[in-house]
Specification:
Distance between the termini: 30 Å
Order of helices and strands: EHEEHHEEHEHEEEEHEHEEEH
CATH topology of the largest domain: D-amino Acid Aminotransferase, Chain A, domain 2
Largest sheet: 9 strands, mixed
Number of domains: 2
Strand content: 25-35%
Helix content: 10-25%
CATH class of the largest domain: Alpha Beta
Structural class: alpha+beta
Number of helices: 8
Radius of gyration: 19 Å
CATH architecture of the largest domain: Alpha-Beta Barrel
């Protein structure tokens, strides 16, 4: 593992979550979905008013990448300065990175996963919707709702009961033969794998509640590091089973499309 020095105590990212991060799959020194990661980081910088680093600075850690599979985490903060919540007029951003070996959870590709609904509801904040900012306390609290390792993920809804995402992955389903994913206009993270798939497949962004999953022929979770996990069992927040799916061609077809973008193979 390669990483840089610790954050100073007055860094605004550490103090207020005033920053952004990207988590990138690196295969043999090559970052996957690099353009999508740069585009999302640029959107986040625009929203927060943080200068976007030069691409060569963001790519510099790749010089230390090895021949295998790794994950690069880039963390960009506004830096230090300002008074209280008031940001400095001329921020001096601080970029840190960490590069670590990685192995995906291949068994979850093959056999599918069990997931649950979370009790926590995501707050609506359209200004921050889609970007990957450092304020992730909602996700932390949602993930703390269960300790059963047999449950792979928790599904999050907004305060109106609309499906949004999982705690660390995006959500997809097929309903009446149509691929759908939640519209992220109010909250949630627009994952880079999600963005790449929307640009390649006929995926509809929709506002939907739990009924979308109840009526779905297939459900998946996915992100740019773990790939795509087919969902085989959905439980409510109390652990009561709500729906079960058998894996079939539909599950594998979508998974194959996604994994081709990441260099993963799933028989």
């Amino acid at each position: 593992m390669s990483e840089q020095a610790a954050w100073p105590l007055d860094d605004r990212g550490a103090a207020y979550g005033d920053g952004l991060f990207e988590t990138i799959l690196v295969r043999g020194g090559r970052p996957l979905l690099w353009d999508e990661h740069l585009a999302r980081l640029a959107r986040g910088c625009h929203v927060l008013g943080i200068p976007m680093p030069a691409e060569h600075d963001l790519a510099a850690p790749l010089a230390e990448a090895g021949p295998g599979l790794e994950v690069l985490k880039l963390t960009l903060t506004r830096g230090s300065g300002g008074r209280g919540y008031r940001p400095p007029a001329a921020p001096e951003p601080r970029l840190r990175w960490q590069l670590a070996d990685f192995a995906p959870a291949e068994s979850r590709w093959q056999t599918g996963v069990r997931v649950r609904h979370c009790r926590l509801r995501l707050a609506s904040q359209p200004l921050l919707a889609g970007i990957k900012h450092l304020n992730r306390l909602e996700n932390v609290l949602a993930r703390a709702e269960w300790n059963d390792d047999a449950i792979a993920e928790g599904l999050l809804r907004d305060d109106a009961g609309r499906l949004v995402e999982a705690t660390a992955m995006n959500l997809f389903w097929q309903r009446a033969g149509r691929l759908e994913t939640p519209r992220l206009a109010r909250c949630g993270v627009a994952g880079t794998l999600r963005e790449a798939l929307i640009s390649r497949l006929d995926i509809h962004e929709v506002e939907a509640g739990d009924e979308a999953l109840t009526n779905a022929e297939a459900v998946w979770l996915g992100n740019s590091v773990q790939g795509v996990w087919p969902v085989v069992c959905l439980e409510d927040a109390a652990g009561v089973e709500r729906r079960r799916w058998s894996l079939g061609v539909t599950h594998r077809t979508f998974q194959t499309e996604a994994h081709a973008l990441l260099g993963y193979y799933c028989p």
